[in-house]
Amino acid sequence: MNITRISAIFLRYFYLVRGNFQRLVQMFVWATFDVILWGFITKYLGGVAEGGIAAVSTLLGAIMLWDFLTRAMQGVSTPFLEDVWARNLLNMFASPLKQGEYIIALAAISVCTSLIGLVVMLVLAYAFFGYSLFSLGLMLVPFIFTLFLSGIALGIFATSVLLRLGPSSEWFIWPMPVVLSPFVGIFYPISVLPQWMQAVSRVLPPTYVFEGMRAALLEGQFSISSLGIGLGLSLGYVALAYVIFVRTYRKAVKSGAVARYSAESFS
Questions:
Q1: For 210-264, how does the pLDDT look when each residue is reduced to its tens digit (9 = 90+)?
Q2: How many CB atoms lie within 10 A of CB 185?
Q3: Which of 106, 145, 153, 161 could form a disulfide with 241 if both were Cys (CB 3.0 to 4.6 A apart)?
Q4: Mean pLDDT to the nearest integer, 181-202
Q5: Would the pLDDT of 2 be above 90?
Q6: 61 phi, psi to nearest 5 deg
Q7: Taking 50 as the threshold, does the pLDDT of residue 174 lie above it?
């Protein structure tokens, strides 16, 4: 691994964002609307239902954590798409840059963009609703780390899909978090799901984060072993997604697909 090449990819995206106001704003504009919208929804529900404070804590905290995962995924896939839109992908891989270095650089970008969104959400949630995600205590650290790794894995897999199917498959990757959301119990315990959905839930790392958050806030207890399972699964998915990306890239190089990647699609 060459830190200089990794830094170059990171700096390229930094200068791209710094020179474009729209790209800078999109890092926190949706986070702002999410917190305000869901904050007022949970505030209303807290006023008409029993256990209002707990409802605000779980629902608003859940949407903040899920938004963080989504941004972690987009932090990987969006810079990749920036290279696609600029028709720079072939130039990138014609250089000495290795696949692992490229993925590490995308992950570093994701760290920065997702943390910016999270900080904005934390500030707004406290300013408007007096809610602090830090009420989770030290458990917040493994929760955030597990969600970040899950987002990275999802982002790497998304880039593999784009690399395999071409730029026209862009529409397919944006709904990925939405497709997963019913299974991971963001707003409800997975016990309300049918058995087949619960089986899917148990192999998804975010499930253990949201179940753990509810247990910590509503019951004052949480199983460390469950969080360990979620963390282990997220690490495994990152490794699996990287293997898929490398194999997809090698196949694209062998078939010559990378050279015509500016086309709408290829088989």
A1: 988 888 777 767 778 888 999 999 999 999 999 999 999 888 877 776 666 654 5
A2: 25
A3: 153
A4: 92
A5: no
A6: -65, -40
A7: yes
Phi-psi region of 220 (alpha: psi -120 to 50; beta: other; left: phi over 0): left
Tokens of 177: 């978090």
Mean pLDDT score, 26-51: 76
Amino acid code (one letter) for 194: P
Whether 242 and 156 have beta carbons less than 8 Å apart is answered as yes
Structure tokens at 218: 């509503």
